[in-house]
Amino acid sequence: MDLWLRPHWPAAIAKGAQTGPGDARRMGRVITWVAAVIAIIVATIVPAAYIGMCWNFEKVDAELSARQYATFVTQAAAASAGDWRRDVQGLVDSPLREPQTRITEHREVRDVEGRLVTESADAVLAPQIVARAPLLGRDGVFGEVVLQRSMRSLLFEAGAVAAMAATLGLAIYFAYSRSHSRLRLAGQQPPPEPSRFDRRS
To answer: Could you tell me if 156 and 47 are in contact, meaning their C-beta atoms sit under 8 angstroms apart?
Structure first.
């Protein structure tokens, strides 16, 4: 049985692989839509996820840093024998640790009336993340620490990620389109000539 079927396999496979023009067009539309959807997802979701992840990380880190600065300022104010505003000068000049990224940071201390007591460096560029931490003393809140971080460098990094994601999306789209072209050409090929075994049967 197997010896009789084996010579007929090439012709049967070629006959089953052929599709009509309508089937080829429908398959082409499906492949094109799938490729376009995948390309759009790769080109948009990946940069958006990168920005969201980095933004949330920097926001949480800025809030923690503001609380640490507030602790230092509160301790210095509690130990002050005179005007605490004079004794906390320069406490926020230096960063808590060496920055791991190119994100710039501006720190300032304000009293309970919102007046500037001390600050570090110049104002940072937008867009910014702003974190605040209150200064708590024996009599309640007597000021706050305001920390600002510029996220402009993150936007440039996100642009580079978006460019790479768009390139990958286009590559996927063209790969699917090329596969569709090959399928369409294969469907348009004439069936092979029957072998001598087919003629004999």
So the answer is: no
